[in-house]
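Open question from group meeting: does this chain pack into something compact, or does most of it stay loose? Before anyone orders reagents, we agreed to write out a predicted structure and look at it together. Recording both the input and the output here so the notebook holds the full record.
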Amino acid sequence: MEAAGPVEIFNQAIVLTIVTLLPIMNPFSTAPLFVSLTADYDEKRRNREARLACIYAFGLLVTFLLLGAAIIDFFGISVPGIRVAGGLIISVIGFRMLLPPATAQNGDRNPVDSEVEIAFTPLAMPSIAGPGSLSVVITAASQIKANRPEQFEFVYAGVTVGMAFTVLIAFIVLRGAAWLARVLGPSALDAMTRIFGFLLVAIGMQFLLTGISDFFGLAHA
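Structure tokens returned:
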């Protein structure tokens, strides 16, 4: 059987990356968080945060594709550790949304200060490029080196393009979700913020428990 050529390998890497990464990234789950956090922003600021979040997420994915294994080995960090850290961050954000301070309850809908940059945390990390996405990228990098050592440049290029397409889809979803901020009133936004704050706490706890379980599973393996 004839071996696959560089173009075919490149295209396969793109498709496989999108199919694998998109369900884990799940930008539709980030959209409500984005709407809640940017409820008091004007359209220009909202678009800027969405654009920066996707740029940061892509940068994180590429960094972990190229250097993730080395970074983890250097600092002695495990994937379960990344999951636990991501779970803690998500939980803190969720608690802030679920139980906003008194000033937020008395007129300010947004539990996050309007001057605080939200593009990197919590949007890019851990929402768009979360522990699951980063672990997939790290795993892919290790498999590329092990299984495709002679064609790694084509696979790496395809994976990078696939990640770019996936992040572009996330950007489109975030931009499309912005219209909710214009049509929902203050009461609906406050209710949605609290609901998704609770869900974020639950997701964060699940990340935390999964990370702890994986850690002890590795320790006893």
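Observations to bring back to the group:
Residues 103-111 have pLDDT under 50 and may be disordered.
DSSP finds ten helices and no strands in the chain.
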